[in-house]
Amino acid sequence: MRKASAGPGLLTVLLGAVGVGPLLLYGLSATSEEIISDLGINEAQFGLLATTCFACAALGNATLGRLADRHSDLGLMTVIFLMATFALGLAGVPGGYLVLLIAVGVSGFAQSFPNGVTNRILLERVPAQKRIGWVGIKQSGVQVSQLVASLTFPLLALLIGWRGTAALAMLIPLTLLVLTWRTLRSVPLLQQTRTTPKDSGSSPVEGVKQLRPRHSAAVWALAAFGCLNGIGVQATNVYLPLFAVRELDFSLVLGGATAAVAGVVGVTARIGWARVMARGTSGPVLLFALALTSLGGVCAFLGAQATDWAPLLWTAVVLHGSSALGVSVVLMSVLLRSIPSASMASSSGVVTAGMFTGFAIGPLGMGIIVSSPGGFTMGWITVGIIYLLCLLLAAVLIRRRR
């Protein structure tokens, strides 16, 4: 097959690998009111769907990272897309809550490898001057998935139901799988691969020029920040459409649009923050700024609920999308600067496992709180406390760097 340089085709594959796993969960979130009514479940049970998904993703990242180091890019990418296809197809099967729970669990395991294998592909196939910029684009795959699901699932659900929509969405990972086979076979490895990349700028964590495969304290600190931020991110993402529908009387489609807008802003933010990181910006300083902005978004959510003023809700959505959704880019950029390709999958797995652990805790916790007398008010206050902890951790990292 004719060899080609790293270009739009490879970038599309990387973006798709990161985004295809969460597609089912975002689609369910966008149609949450209909699913809750159809299955006869409560908000906490609906939150358990997201918790199951992200718990499986966390488990996969924590246990399969080193296994992924020993398998080919094409093999891992094939597993990702086939598992995502199976999850969507299973969700489309007429069944009860348990079937849907299994489907989201499978979609969670589909998120076990994407960060590690796509980071390794960047190191081994993409020139150094492009890498950090490409991180922002490929990490925005999650928000592209959120955008696509939030716009299409509610509209198609009105025509063919939410199960039919999930089944139809199987075409997305299958198409990406074909593109992956064509692209990875045509884009060669760089001449020097599986070597330690040089740090492109100042190290975001003081004293860490290279993070060893054993995973230094810096890796665990990044994982801890990812966990805390992940709690706030998915507590917001999963219940944002439901909050808009119930508390501000939005329609089902308009409620889904809130998540879509967050996705659009998130895509732009991740690309933008990657460019900031490429200029050598300190990781902890940027994490502190993002946590502070996320806290502002929580205040806006509380204000929108108290005043029933829609513009304040949209403001909160923009703040959420531009800050909390951009954290993974900073975390992955730090790893890309510091980790050799031979151990990239396992090191990325540790940090990603931290994020997914937070993703698993957030929806279930938010669902329990929303179902309680405290409702969304107590839920947003709790999310605010989480972001305060993020601020504290970022401040500790800044002090250590100085």
Q: What is the name of the CATH class?
A: Mainly Alpha
What is the CATH topology?
Growth Hormone, Chain: A
- Considering the protein shown, what is the CATH homologous superfamily? MFS general substrate transporter like domains
Low-confidence stretches are 194-213
> In the CATH classification, which architecture applies?
Up-down Bundle
Order of helices and strands: HHHHHHHHHHHHHHHHH
Provide the helix percentage.
Answer: over 70%
Tally of individual domains: 1
How does the helix and strand content classify structurally? Answer: mainly alpha
Q: Report Rg.
A: 20 Å
Count, helices:
17
Report mean pLDDT, rounded to a whole number: 83
The count of DSSP E runs of length 2 or more, i.e. the number of strands, is 0
Shape descriptor reads: globular
- Sheet with the most strands? none
**Proportion of strand residues:** under 5%
Summarize the model shown.
The chain is 79% helix and 0% strand. With 402 residues, the chain is an all-alpha fold. The protein has a single domain, classed as Growth Hormone, Chain: A (Up-down Bundle).
Features:
single chain; MFS family permease; MFS; transmembrane; 402 residues; Sugar_transport-like; globular; mainly alpha; Growth Hormone, Chain: A; transmembrane helix
Structure characterization notes:
With 402 residues, the chain is an all-alpha fold. The chain has a single domain (8-401), classed as Growth Hormone, Chain: A. Helix content is 79%, strand content 0%. It has 17 helices and no strands. It has helices at 8-20, 23-30, 32-39, 43-69, 73-91, 97-109, 114-125, 128-139, 141-168, 171-186, 217-247, 252-278, 283-307, 310-322, 327-338, 344-371, 375-401. Helix 1 (8-20) packs across helix 10, helix 12 (252-278) packs parallel to helix 15 and helix 13 (283-307) runs antiparallel to helix 15. The longest helix has 31 residues, at 217-247. The radius of gyration is 20 Å and the shape is globular. The model is unreliable at 194-213 (pLDDT under 50).
